[in-house]
């Protein structure tokens, strides 16, 4: 256990951890390892200095992480808002179509839903051409049979 720090295993581990911390912090803070020196006397001042650097680095990481999380939350809030608006629009359209459908069409639709099959596209096309809800309502506003 020949080390420039200490010869006791526990002290060697502490020394290696400090050296790792200095290297890690230097890379985080963009400084050269030579500018962050640690004396081998293990004085209280050097330990406090390292602790302060570690705390600063952790605060920096935390602030970057919180910023990224806030950005993601804002994006998700906007997506939720858009989805709620789209859901409301689709519910209104669904209600309108239900009100405009004949009892035979509703019965046919219920039968298809229960059987799990989708309505054939050729049958839909033959009944009415695709049109927006407002146009559909104007076309079907007359009395139904």
Summarize the structure.
The protein has 145 residues and is an all-alpha fold. The chain has five helices and no strands.
Give a structural overview.
With 145 residues, this protein is mainly alpha-helical. Helices cover 72% and strands 0% of the residues. It contains 5 helices and no strands. It has helices at residues 9-29, 44-100, 103-115, 121-127, 133-139. The longest helix is centred in the middle third of the chain and has 57 residues, at 44-100. It starts with 8 loop residues before the first helix and ends in a 6-residue tail after the last helix. Mean pLDDT is 73; it is low at 1-7, 32-36 and 122-145.
Features:
single chain; 145 residues; mainly alpha; 72% helix; 0% strand
Radius of gyration: 35 Å
Shape type: rod-shaped
Question: Unreliable runs, pLDDT <50, ≥5 residues?
Answer: 1-7, 32-36, 122-145
Strand content: under 5%
Listing every helix as H and every strand as E from the N terminus to the C terminus, the arrangement reads HHHHH
Helix content: over 70%
Q: What integer is the average pLDDT?
A: 73
- Counted beta strands: 0
Give the structural class.
mainly alpha
Distance between termini?
99 Å
């Amino acid at each position: 256990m020949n080390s420039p720090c200490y010869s006791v295993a526990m002290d060697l581990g502490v020394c290696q951890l400090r050296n790792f911390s200095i290297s890690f912090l230097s890379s985080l803070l963009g400084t050269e390892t030579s500018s962050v020196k640690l004396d081998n006397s293990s004085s209280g001042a050097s330990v406090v200095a390292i602790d302060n650097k570690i705390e600063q680095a952790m605060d920096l990481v935390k602030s970057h992480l919180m910023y990224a999380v806030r950005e993601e939350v804002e994006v998700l809030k906007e997506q939720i808002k858009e989805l709620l608006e789209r859901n409301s629009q689709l519910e209104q359209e669904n209600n309108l179509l239900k009100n405009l459908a004949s009892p035979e069409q509703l019965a046919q639709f219920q039968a298809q839903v229960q059987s799990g099959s989708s309505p054939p596209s050729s049958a839909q096309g033959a009944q009415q051409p695709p049109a927006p809800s407002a146009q559909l309502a104007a076309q079907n506003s007359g009395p139904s049979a």
